[in-house]
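User: Can you write out an input/output pair for a complex, sequences first and structure second?

Assistant: Here is one pair. Inputs:
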Amino acid sequence: MIDLTYQTGDSILHRMNPTHKFLGLLICTIIILVSKNLAGTIIAAVLITTLILLSKLPIKKVFAPLKSLFFFLIMIFLMNALFFNNGDCLYSYHSICISYKGIEQGYNIVLHTIAITILSSIFIRTTTSIEIMRGIENTLRPLRIFHIPTKDISLIMSIALQFIPVFFNDIDRIRKAQIARGANFNKGSIITRIQSIFPLVIPAFISAFRRADELSTAIEARGFQSDYESFK
Amino acid sequence: MQLEIKHATVRYSNSDKILDNIDLNITEGQFLGITGKAGCGKTTLLETIAGFHKPESGFVLLDGQNIYEKRFVSQSFRKRLQIVFQFPENQFFESDIWNEIGFGLKNISSSPEEKERKTIEAMLAVGLDINEMKNVSPFALSGGQKRRLALACAIVVSPEILLLDEPFSGLDGDGQNQIISILKDLHRNGTTILMVSHDPNVLSEVADKIVVLDAGKIQFNDIPSRVFADKYLCDKLGIGQPETKITADLIGLDLDEDLTYSNFIKKLEKKYLAAHD
Amino acid sequence: MINVSNISFTYNNNKKIIENISLSIEPGKVTAILGKNGSGKSTLVRLILALLPISDGKIYIDDIDINCKEGINQIRKQCGIVFQNPDNHFVSPIIEDDIKFGLTNHHVPETIQSDCVKSALDKVSLTGYEKRNVSTLSGGQKQKAAAAGILAVDNSIIFFDEATSMLDPNGRKELQLCIEDLRNQNKTIVIISQNIEDVLHADKILLISDHQIIKSGSARDILTDYETLKGAGIQIPFPVQVYHDLFQKGIKMKNCPLTSGELAEELCSLK
C-alpha cells in the first residue's frame, strides 16, 4: 500500500545510499540531455543497459511506463518532423514542412524522454519512498545558502508520503458510499462520465482540505518555524 | 424478502481471511445488531452484504439470487438495499440539502412529482424541517443534522433493507437519541435493519438479535439477553455488557430476557415498591 | 499555571462562540472541559494554545500574557495537544521521524534525539515502535504516538481535544490508561470532551453550555447534577439516570451514585 512502485531486491542499486543515488540520477539526466543524435543514442543505451544490469530488475517492469507514453511520443515526433520550420524544408505543403532539422529535433526529444523515463523508472523501483525523500532532502540542503526553503520542501514531501494511504482510504470510502447511492462511474458517454466524477472529486477535495487544515494547526502547535518565515 | 449469506469467505488480496465461512439468515423486518472487537470483520461483513466484496467462496443471496452473479451489482439491488457508512457526512458534495438527498433518486425512474414527494418524506422522517432546510448547504449543518441528512439520503429510495456502520460515532447524547428514534420508526414500519455497533447499551435497546463476530467467524447469533449473559465470555469477545445487565447482576435482579432500560426500571420499581408495601 | 480571563470569541460572520469565559488550569491536576458539540470548547482550547488570535480578554501562562512573542514561546514550550483525528497529526510516515520533527522544532540537539524518542515511546507503552509506519497503527496507538511526540519535547501541560471520539472502545481504554500514566508522571492534563466516560476521573470539570461556563466543580458535583447536565445537552451517566427515574417513581436512594458499583450498593441498601 505504501510503496506501490518499489521492487524489493538487494542489488547494488537497491543498497546504494539514496543521496548518492539521487545525485547520480541528476547527473545521468544531465548527461542524457546534452547528448544528441547518434552519440546520444549510444550513450543513453550504454547508461541504461548498465543500470538495468546493476539493478537486477526485470526488463518488462523497467520499460512499463513507456507503454502509456507511446501515443504522446509519436505525437511529439510528428509535430517536430512535420511542422518545424526554419526555412530549410525538403518538402512543404501549407504549414507542413519536413526538414532534417525537424526530424533530428523530434528524434532527440523522443530519445531524451524515453531515456529519462527509464532512468526514473529504475530509480523509483530500487528506492523506497522514504529513501527518495531523504535523497532529495540531502541533495537540496546546500541550497539553503541561497535562502531556498529546503526544510519546508522536505516537510511537504514527508507529509505527502504520510498521507498517501490516508487519501487512498478516504477516496475508497467515498467511492463506495456514492456507488451505494446509485452512482455509476463506468457507464455512459464522455459527458456522463465527467459529470459522474463530481460526487467523487468534491468530497475527496473537501476531505483533503479539512485534513490539511487540521494538520497545519497541529504543526503550529508543535512549534514549527517555517523556512519561509525565517528567510523572509 | 429473504437475505442469506451462505458459507461466505472473504479475503483481501494476499492477506488472511477477513470473513471465514459465514452463514447468516436475515428475516424480513428484523433489527439485527452486529458487534465484535476491532478487526473482527464487522465492517467487511456489512460491505459484503452490500455488494462491495465478492466472496472468494460462498454466496450472498437476495430472494434466492446471487447478488454477485454479474460483473456489477445491479441497480435494482441498490434500490432494495442501502448502506450508510461510518462518518457518512464525508460523502456530501451538493450545494443544498434538496439536491443531496435527490442524488439517490437519479437512477429511479419516477416522475419529478414522485421524486419531490419522496425527498420531502425523507426529510420529514429524519426531522429536517423542509421549509427552513431546503436550500441550506449540507456543510452548514451541525454534526447531528449532518448524520440525519446522510440517513435521509439512504432512506429516500425506500429501501427494504438498511445497513448501518457505527451510526452513532462522534455524536453527542442528543444526536444519538435522535438517530435511535429514527431507526426505531423505520423498524416499526417494516424496514429490515442491520447495524454494526460496539455499544452494548444501544444494541440491547433496539436489536431483535445480535451477531457477534470474532476473527471473521460468527460466535453468537441470538437475542441480546443470551448474547450478553456471560461476563467472562463478553470480555473475551471484547464486546462488553449493557449497563442494565451489569447492574442487575450486581444486585441479583432477574430481567426476564429483556435488557432494555424501561424494563430495567420496571423491574426495579416492582422490587422496591413492593418491598415498601 | 494557565489563567484565562474574560475571553470572548466571535467569528467574522458574527457567530458568537464563547462569551466572557474565565478559568484556571492548575498544575499537576486533570482538568476537564465538558460540553456538547458546538458548545465552544474546542475554540476555547485553541485560544489558550495561541492557535487563534485573541481580541477580547486575556490569557496568561505563568503570569505572562500569551498575546506576545514571549507568551507564545512559553505556550509552545509547555503545552502540547492531541487532536481528535488520529491521522491528521503526523508529518512523516515513520514514527521516529515524526517525533524528531517536534524535537527539531524545540531545538533539541540531533545527537540526543534518538534517545528522547525511545524514552517518550516507553512512556506511552509503545516501546520498539520507532521504525513503524504510522498507517499500520490502530487508532488508539496513533493517539498514543501523538502523545509520545508531546512527551518527547517535555511539554508539561497536555491537552486532549476529543481525542477518544474517533476511537473504538479498545482504543478509548488504551488512551485512558495512557492518560492515567501521564497523570502519575505529574503532567498537567486538560481533557476536552462531550463524553462523560472521559471525564469521570478528572479533578475538576468545567461544564460549558451556551457559550459560557455554567458550572465548575468536582467530577461528582457535575456528573450527578441531572438538571444541569440535561440542560447542557450532555448524556446523563446511567447510574444518575436510574437515580433520577426511580426518584420520580417515589423510590429514593440515599446518595446519587456515579458508578455501577455505587448504584448497586445504593439499590441494595434500599431494602
